[in-house]
Write a structure and sequence with these properties.
The chain is α+β, with helices and mostly antiparallel strands and 455 residues long. The protein is built from 10 helices and 12 strands. The strands form 3 sheets. The protein has a 5-stranded antiparallel sheet with strand order 2-1-5-4-3, sandwiched between helices. It is rod-shaped and about 160 Å long. It is an enzyme of class 2 (transferase).
């Protein structure tokens, strides 16, 4: 079974709400009008009964009753729909006024309860009262023809039902128009979502005419498109960078191999060429390993081992490893502070090794590389700083992007440098639920890492 659309549901709800309100209002008006006419009829009968009682109480003997006939006819005969009869204690009719039907109804009502009664297609409302005259009770029976009132209410109910049906149809149509107009932003979202492709990620839904109820949805959808666009651009750039980085070693391998195969050579030449090819293959293998690591990190597959690590001890071992390279260039290491954290020792060693390798690469000869460890109440801060050329502020946010270089035309001296070290470092730190950032001012560049301490 096909489900109703949101427009149809809201239109139906609007129609039911309007119909319910109008139906309740019509029912209230009908009941109020009927009550009003019933009160008028009841008041007329009570007034005539009271006037008749006062008139009959003026005589002291029933033999004087005939003297009241003109007054009774004047009192009770002025109303064409009113029937009146007066009986004595023995049931003898003393006075009758009205049509034959009304007299018959009045006679029938002598021993019945007051209220509405039907007779010969007419509806009558009757009332009975006793009057004490000269010690004898007289029964006064009054009946009022309310057929016209009932017919009026029957027509009124028919008109109300007709008007209610017409209002339901009109409100349903009007609700459909209003709901369809109000849901226009949703259709715009649908159209934009249907048209989204790799070539149209720049499209956005305008928020100027968006209702307040849909504003958060539109803002979230536009933010999703922005994230998709950014991810697609990064993926495209990443693919281009991979192709660029792999093209160089592959080109070197092909060139060396073609040169060697161009003519017969000695075993030494072949060995030299194979060693050169092996170096390029190792570089490609390291690059592929790094890219696989980053791909796992992007998908949340890098789960660090949880173990207690003394940061100072870890840094001392790394500085000892790089000490020979630093001594060759007259560079000194300065280490201060200590702290203990929970994390993966191998992964953190790789992240810090990348930072120290970059620091050695860019520090001028005779410079000083400082490693500071500060244990705070809520975090542990590890800073690796080195002197060198100041990095422009516009480049700082992108230093951790893959294959990113401040100078795209620059090629580093080490063949192992592919521009993935800082990206791997950030992935490792984020896997440890930490943060890393870079500052560069006045010829001093520092990378600051914040990690959670052992509580």
């Amino acid at each position: 079974m096909k489900r109703l659309s949101l427009t149809a549901r809201l239109s139906l709800m609007f129609m039911l709400a309007v119909t319910g309100v109008l139906g309740a209002a019509g029912l209230f008006f009908s009941l109020l009008s009927q009550h009003h006419f019933d009160e008028l009829d009841r008041h007329t009968l009570e007034e005539k009964l009271q006037a008749s009682r006062q008139l009959l109480q003026q005589v002291d003997d029933l033999r004087q009753f005939d003297t009241l006939l003109p007054q009774l006819q004047a009192l009770l005969g002025g109303h064409s729909d009113l029937s009146a009869q007066i009986f004595d204690a023995g049931g003898r009719l003393l006075f009758a006024q009205g049509s034959a039907h009304s007299e018959h109804v009045a006679a029938d009502r002598r021993d019945s309860e007051d209220g509405e009664h039907k007779h010969a297609g007419h509806v009558w409302r009757s009332v009975t009262g006793l009057v004490e005259v000269a010690g004898q009770p007289l029964q006064v029976v009054l009946a009022l023809d309310v057929t016209a009132h009932k017919a009026f209410f029957h027509v009124l109910i028919g008109w109300l039902w007709g008007a209610l049906l017409l209002c339901a149809l009109v409100s349903g149509l009007l609700g459909w128009v209003l709901v369809r107009s109000g849901l226009r932003p949703l259709r715009e979202v649908t159209q934009v979502a249907a048209s989204v492709s790799a070539k149209s990620l720049t499209e956005r839904i305008p928020t100027e005419s968006t209702p307040a109820e849909l504003e958060q949805l539109v803002v979230a959808f536009n933010a999703m498109l922005a994230r998709l666009e950014e991810a697609f651009v990064r993926l495209s750039n990443f693919s281009a960078d991979i192709a660029h980085e792999l093209r160089t070693p592959l080109s070197n391998l092909m060139t060396h191999t073609e040169v060697v195969l161009s003519r017969d050579r000695s075993n030494g030449d072949y060995q030299e060429n194979l060693h050169s090819n092996l170096e390029e293959l190792r570089r490609m293998a390291r690059m592929i390993d790094d890219m696989l690591f980053l791909a796992k990190a992007d998908n949340g597959l890098i789960i660090p081992e949880v173990q207690s690590i003394e940061l100072r001890e870890l840094c001392e071992k790394l500085l000892e490893f790089y000490q020979m390279t630093a001594d060759d260039r007259g560079i000194r290491f300065e280490l201060s502070g200590s702290a203990r954290i929970l994390g993966d020792s191998a992964m953190l060693r790789r992240a810090l090794s990348n930072l120290l390798s970059n620091a050695l690469r860019y520090t001028p000869d005779g410079g000083v590389i400082r490693v500071d460890i500060v244990a705070g109440a809520n975090s542990v801060t590890l800073t690796v700083g080195n002197p060198g050329v100041t990095i422009p502020q516009t480049h700082l946010p992108r230093l951790f992007d893959r294959f990113y270089r401040v100078d795209p035309a620059r090629r580093e001296g080490s063949p192992s440098n592919a521009g993935l070290g800082l990206a791997i470092t950030r992935s490792i730190i984020e896997a440890h639920r930490g943060e890393i950032r870079c500052d560069s001012n006045d010829g001093w560049t520092s990378f600051e890492i914040q990690l959670n301490p052992i509580v």
